[in-house]
DNA sequence: TCTGGGGTCCTAGGACCC
DNA sequence: TCTGGGGTCCTAGGACCC
């Protein structure tokens, strides 16, 4: 049977989450900044209309933000993650096969559906709006790539009213002509340049491109993208995502760090968080990479270094990871460097119940497992938390900037929305 | 002065094996 | 002077996604 895919995507997701809980922000130009208040990562419709770019450093946009009294917010991932969960839960009531593709997007398998697809798209929109307060757009097509195309056009056209079905549509050629080649899912900056050099500037031209040349220049993924534009689905719905291959935690510092002590504390905080994420996925890691770096945009005094530890037995024990991580930081530290960022990468992840044991293991693994469960249990309670001494006790000097963050309305009892 | 963070997959090349 | 063929595994780097 020929497949049908829908892509449901939240409009201006981070900005919209903020507007749901702050009515005074609705209808206004607002932007949300990345971690450390660095770049603009989300814009409301009104901010977009002012010509404020995506991914632009906040300091570069300062003039335009001030001039138009744009509301500027730090990112609030606790809020966005919770709102994302609500959207996905809502969608799961509308389809048996749902692939959560990103924080604000999901693919739905509509193959074999007898209902009118356009109507169904509106049902999705109405229910998500009613249950979460968020607006979504729905694009429908014979492949994921075409569902993406349809979704883009659904957002762009007022007439579509947020839903566009390109399945067997007589307008498909016209639709593909309206999508620039760099907007096609899977075509990045480098690929777009090469295609444009060959005169391929629209999705339609890409669909009709010579497949042998595509194979040579872009490999198998390029071929898949072209086939998908030709209505042959190459990427199935994956509603049972495979286990993670790696866990990364890294942050830019609010202020440069020049001493060993705060650098150790920062890395300790990142390792602690990474280990928590690891255990949330019931996994253990075989390798750990610690990296430290100075400002990557600075011309002078640049330094990047990293070190990788291989564990003889995969571990998810925060204490064990921390001990080795602190040794790394001491070796990586350089006097006189202004560190701006550091992080940890855990790789070689395995199911925590299928870890290859050691014949002579110096660590009591059962005891370590009980300790981690106890710590995680305590930290999952809203009123309690315990931390590792390596993270330090004082307010950290390296903490990322986020002075304009809204409240965690949906995940923190002390920050509930107040109505007067 | 100020410039995010977390992922996945593919490919080429080297090391090593018989 | 001549110097095979086929395979696996690992890693680094690039490209892409949101």
How many alpha or pi helices? 13
Radius of gyration from CA coordinates? 24 Å
Query: Taking all residues together, what is the mean pLDDT?
Result: 94
**Into how many domains do the coordinates divide?**
3
Structural class: alpha+beta
Query: What proportion strand?
Result: 15-25%
What overall form do the CA principal axes indicate? globular
CATH architecture of the largest domain: 2-Layer Sandwich
Strand order across the largest sheet: 5-6-1-7-8
* CATH hierarchy, class of the largest domain: Alpha Beta
Helical percentage: 25-40%
Sheet bearing the most strands, described? 5 strands, mixed
Low-confidence stretches: none
Q: How are helices and strands ordered from N to C?
A: EHEEHHEHEEHEHEHHHHEHEEHEH
Distance between the termini: 55 Å
CATH H-level superfamily of the largest domain: Reverse transcriptase/Diguanylate cyclase domain
- CATH fold-type name of the largest domain: Alpha-Beta Plaits
Topology, number of strands: 12
Structure description:
This protein has 3 domains: 5-10 and 81-229, Reverse transcriptase/Diguanylate cyclase domain (Alpha-Beta Plaits); 13-79, MutS, DNA mismatch repair protein, domain I (3-Layer(aba) Sandwich), CATH 3.40.1170; 246-391, DNA polymerase, Y-family, little finger domain (Dna Ligase, domain 1), CATH 3.30.1490. The protein has 13 helices and 12 strands. The chain has helices spanning 13-21, 45-49, 62-67, 77-92, 117-132, 144-156, 172-177, 189-197, 203-207, 211-229, 260-280, 318-332, 365-379, and strands spanning 5-10, 30-33, 40-43, 71-73, 98-102, 105-109, 136-141, 163-165, 246-257, 283-294, 304-315, 339-351. The longest helix is centred in the middle third of the chain and has 21 residues, at 260-280. It binds a DNA duplex (18 and 18 nucleotides) through residues 33-39, 41, 55-60, 62, 75, 101-105, 185-191, 218-221, 244-252, 295-297, 341, 343, 400-401.
